[in-house]
Amino acid sequence: xxxxxxxxxxxxxxxxxxxxxxxxxxxxxxxxxxxxxxxxxxxxxxxxxxxxxxxxxxxxxxxxxxxxxxxxxxxxxxxxxxxxxxxxxxxxxxxxxxxxxxxxxxxxxxxxxxxxxxxxxxxxxxxxxxxxxxxxxxxxxxxxxxxxxxxxxxxxxxxxxxxxxxxxxxxxxxxxxxxxxxxxxxxxxxxxxxxxxxxxxxxxxxxxxxxxxxxxxxxxxxxxxxxxxxxxxxxxxxxxxxxxxxxxxxxxxxx
Length: 255
Hints:
Shape: globular
Helix content: 40-55%
CATH superfamily: NAD(P)-binding Rossmann-like Domain
Strand order of the largest sheet: 3-2-1-4-5-6-7
Largest sheet: 7 strands, parallel
Radius of gyration: 17 Å
CATH class: Alpha Beta
Number of helices: 7
Distance between the termini: 44 Å
Number of domains: 1
């Protein structure tokens, strides 16, 4: 179990059915938050909910497709119905990226899905959460999962563009809602199996800490940043949780 850093908090985690999102949803609940987590995969979402309940954690699954505005609205309404109010939003949801979707081959639907889920839904939910927190006078926190490739191009233009856009959404919301005591930040994960990373073993030997990361590596940083004990004076910034991966020159060549 956690250390109750988030006791009394209510949290929504998107993309919480597996990988990094699952790790964060479970970690927030373990540290005392009441959690609603959303995913487009019903089987994985229900399995994660069952795992949480077996561990005695308060984490409820909601099926949601964030590609459409209606999906965002429905998720927001369901979250408030389940929790009453919201003090934490974590936006992890992102379509699974495929290494074959390069500048020359990515199709319009793949591009649109990546932008819609990461950027469009991320902005809508962040804005709604911020307005809700202001109205309720909640000193809330919003956290986005971005990428090292928000600043470094690679062979997935839709992914890099979506994460770069999300980084600026984070900064805009941090500036807007900071005077109301609301903190908005991002985490840029490194190579995390299950979090979009799909191998590339040559990278591992160059990572300064000598290993790939785990969802829990990201989740524990998320808890720290979202807590008032450790993150209370941090807003508008991205923390790289990458074992030092950003220190090396790594720009995958197009296939």
